[in-house]
Amino acid sequence: MSTKYGGVDRSYDRSFGVKVTFALLHAIIVSICLWLAFGGFEWADPTRAKVLAAAAVLYFLRHLITLFVLLQRKVELGEGLGLTVFIAIFEIGFLLLGAGLLSGVEKPFGGWDWFGVALLLIGSCMNTGSELQRRAWKKLPGSKGRCYTGGLFGYSMHVNYLGDSILFTGWAILTASLWAFAIPALMTYLFITYHIPPLDEYLADRYGDEFKAYAAKTAKFLPFIY
Description:
Elements: E1 4-5, E2 8-9, H1 16-38, H2 46-70, H3 77-98, H4 111-138, H5 159-175, H6 182-207, H7 209-217
Antiparallel strand pairs: 1-2
């Protein structure tokens, strides 16, 4: 069986060197965010800049868990470098938008922002929490070679992707800029059209009828809608 699906090699490989490089590059990006938020710059909205820097730190911590605890497939250097560029764009870009680089005005932190914080935390828990549930189940003796359909994955086949869409929507809200919503919109579009189809193909090849039965009764992305 081929291990290449959607341009991603899904064969087992710890890829430790690539993961360390990826993590160090991400750490540099987060350091830039912290410098921009706490380095004494005279932003129009310094409070929002600090909140967005905190969001970048949270995402970095989750990224470490994903890289060194959850992700078991091969990670190629090109994939890591490409994602590093994308991370730099949204983490630094979100902070600059929220700091008022374009608007030049301070926007008071209000109820809509607290909703954004809630989405950020809920989405983060959905993504990492669902993956930790699957990891714990995979370690059980009777789970080898079987398709995981429990926990949060019982509500959505790709609940981890859904969690990312939710958290990035919350993150965009915290920028108080409509420009930021291009990121969660693009990510959701890519999840549905680019990432999910080849992943489903891989799972169908690997788990056969068990996956087909799971797919027949479970929402692919958003429960009750898709």
